[in-house]
Amino acid sequence: MSLPVIYTPITVLQAPWDGFYRGVCGHFKMDFMRCASRVGYSRAQYECKKELEDFRECFWQQKQFERTRIMEKERKRQGREYITPLGKDIPEKGY
């Protein structure tokens, strides 16, 4: 991941060149880039740790998968069945 030397409006215009700026995690990447451009490349991993962790969680969703695994394990431990899906709200429209 390359960091901008300074954060300017041109940085925002060049953001779509990197694929990570598209989609739901783009704003997390921009937050990290803003922070990293203030402190520099060598200190960015330490001083912008929260922003980098937010971006990584959005991109990889490790905490979400871990929560799902824990809930699945607890459901199996209690011997519960899966709940039945709710019925359709508007049958004529198909959803």
UniProtKB/TrEMBL annotation:
Q: Would you say which domain of life the source belongs to? A: Eukaryota
Any one GO cellular component localisation term in the record: mitochondrial inner membrane
Cellular localization per UniProt: Mitochondrion inner membrane; Mitochondrion intermembrane space
Ordered alphabetically, the record's keywords are: Disulfide bond, Electron transport, Membrane, Mitochondrion, Mitochondrion inner membrane, Respiratory chain, Transport
| Similarity comment text for this entry | Belongs to the complex I NDUFS5 subunit family.
* Pfam families per UniProt: Ndufs5
What membrane topology is given?
Peripheral membrane protein
PROSITE patterns the record matches: CHCH (PS51808)
Identify the species of origin: Plakobranchus ocellatus
Mind giving the lineage of the organism this protein is from? Eukaryota, Metazoa, Spiralia, Lophotrochozoa, Mollusca
Its biological purpose: Accessory subunit of the mitochondrial membrane respiratory chain NADH dehydrogenase (Complex I), that is believed not to be involved in catalysis. Complex I functions in the transfer of electrons from NADH to the respiratory chain. The immediate electron acceptor for the enzyme is believed to be ubiquinone.
Q: List the disulfide bonds.
A: 25-58, 35-48
Q: What is this protein called?
A: NADP dehydrogenase [ubiquinone] iron-sulfur protein 5
